[in-house]
Design goal:
By secondary structure, the protein is of the alpha+beta class. The protein folds into two domains: 193 residues, Chloramphenicol acetyltransferase-like domain (Chloramphenicol Acetyltransferase, 2-Layer Sandwich); 203 residues, 2-Layer Sandwich (Chloramphenicol Acetyltransferase), CATH 3.30.559. It is 23% helix and 24% strand. The strands form four sheets. A seven-stranded mixed β-sheet has the order 1-6-7-8-3-16-15, covered by helices on one side. Strand 15 and strand 16 form a beta hairpin. The longest helix has 16 residues. The two termini are 37 Å apart. About 4% of the residues have low confidence. Pfam families: Transferase. InterPro entries: CAT-like_dom_sf, Plant_Fungal_Acyltransferase. This is Omega-hydroxypalmitate O-feruloyl transferase. GO terms for molecular function: acyltransferase activity, transferring groups other than amino-acyl groups. It comes from Populus trichocarpa.
Length: 441
């Protein structure tokens, strides 16, 4: 991609004064004090609006949206009741928004449905100089960049602190932003109160929680107010390699589900269960861990409707809890498909209100991180539903993470109308070759 040039960079604050308040961050939020980057692509506006009109519409929409989303305009600070924790000070300090241009045509980027190095330029103006040394209280919680391509197509990139929203709540934010650019009202009223996820006093750990690891002497605790950074939930021991994209056609997905049901031991098998089981087995074998080593696959489970009482519609926080499937490599090699799929299903089925509360209490006591021993995290990006969003400049074409972080595997949608899926993962070339062979055998 040819150089992206900055048009302007502004600070957007709520269009009217908001009430100064503090927002509690739960133990599901605090491991996620790190920035998440994604980008959405759009064809040239059919209504022929200029780029200036597009980014000024975005500014106006954000000024309005930051009234109900006043917490996004705030800053992280030590909590008043416990200064070893962080909370959000809704001080109206604002967010940072950049408008940029490039002469590159969108078609020159090739496939848009998976992370690639070129996409980093679409968030090029969203990092502050010396940011790594800045205190939390000085860092915006949200950055946005709107970039126009030489063909008139647009890219809307966001960089937000993950402790504020999970993927489902970020989807709600984007739906509301799209509505405001069209001049419509809120689609979903955000509710950032996450006291429903407070740890019990005293904590009661009633289940084993293999989805988490205790902090080691060489690893930060899951939140750290004294320092300038926090451990990222996506931080695993996997070294950085090369991002690979592997397509699974619909016929292969169907065959995996049939293989899992063939021996009659399972009553059902969803696409996610079948793909997750196969990815877990193939990646574990390809990375050449010892046969007796336990391999752990994590995957987010939305507990909004699991906890009692259920979380209100519009919850704006983190309610995705790591589910996990665990087995030795020998089991993954020797056991039938139904056994491995059942392990994945059990990772979801163990969740009830008590299990969620026990996990929150475990984090309160141990201040750990999601499991980081011989593990990886599988994220089904195709479930977000962002393709329904329509902005004033048009309907979303594709949405993808900007980069693939080590220890992550993404399930991404295939080409439109294809019906298949893409697996995006980060492994050395020899291991990805073995992974691909195992995936398709």
């Amino acid at each position: 991609m040819e150089g992206v040039k900055l048009v302007e960079k502004v600070v957007i604050v709520p269009e009217m004064p908001t009430n100064r308040r503090r927002i509690f961050l739960s133990n599901l939020d605090l491991p996620l004090v790190a920035y998440q980057e994604s980008v959405s692509f759009y064809d040239p506006p059919e209504n022929k609006i200029s780029f200036s009109e597009s980014y000024n519409t975005l500014y106006r929409a954000l000024r309005s949206l930051l009234v109900p989303y006043d917490f996004f305009a705030g800053r992280l600070v030590p909590a008043l009741e416990d200064n070893s924790r962080l909370e959000i000070d809704c001080n109206g300090a604002g967010i940072v928004v950049a408008a940029a241009r490039t002469d590159t045509r969108l078609s020159h980027l090739g496939g848009l449905f998976a992370p690639k190095p070129d996409f980093k330029q679409l968030v090029a103006f969203l990092r502050e100089e010396g940011e790594d040394e800045m205190e939390f209280k000085d860092k915006p919680l949200l950055y946005i960049q709107l970039t126009q391509f030489g063909c008139g197509s647009l890219a809307l990139a966001s960089r937000y602190n993950h402790c504020v929203l999970d993927g489902a709540a970020a989807r709600d934010f984007e739906k509301n932003l799209a509505a405001f650019t069209r001049g419509d009202d809120l689609v979903i009223v955000p509710n950032p109160d996450r006291t429903i996820f407070k740890a019990r006093n005293p904590p009661r750990i009633s289940h084993p929680h293999h989805e988490y690891s205790k902090p080691s002497e060489t690893r930060d605790n899951f939140f750290s107010v004294g320092g300038k950074r926090c451990t990222n939930v996506m931080h695993f021991s996997t070294p950085h390699n090369t991002t690979h994209l592997i397509h699974i056609p619909p016929q292969r997905i169907a065959s995996l589900k049939m293989a899992a049901l063939k021996d009659g031991k399972l009553k059902k098998c969803t696409t996610f269960h079948a793909i997750a089981a196969k990815v877990w087995k193939a990646r574990s074998i390809a990375t050449k861990i010892h046969d007796e080593v336990c391999s752990t696959m994590l995957f987010p489970v939305d507990v909004r409707r699991i906890v009692v009482p259920p979380v209100q519609i519009g919850f704006a926080g983190n309610a995705l809890v790591p589910g996990c499937a665990r087995a030795s490599l020998r089991e993954l090699k020797d056991k039938e498909d139904s056994y491995i799929v059942r392990k994945v299903q059990e990772g979801v089925e163990r969740f009830d209100d008590e299990y969620v509360r026990s996990g929150i209490d475990w984090l309160e006591v141990h201040r750990g991180t999601p499991c980081n021993e011989n593990s990886f995290s599988l994220v089904a990006w195709f479930r977000l539903g962002l393709e329904e969003d329509v902005f004033s400049w048009g309907k979303l074409k594709y949405a993808t993470p900007v980069v693939l972080k080590p220890g992550l595997v993404f399930l991404l949608p295939g080409l439109e109308g294809d019906g298949g899926l893409n697996i995006c993962l980060d492994l050395p070339d020899d291991q990805v070759d073995e992974f691909h062979r195992l995936l398709m055998e």
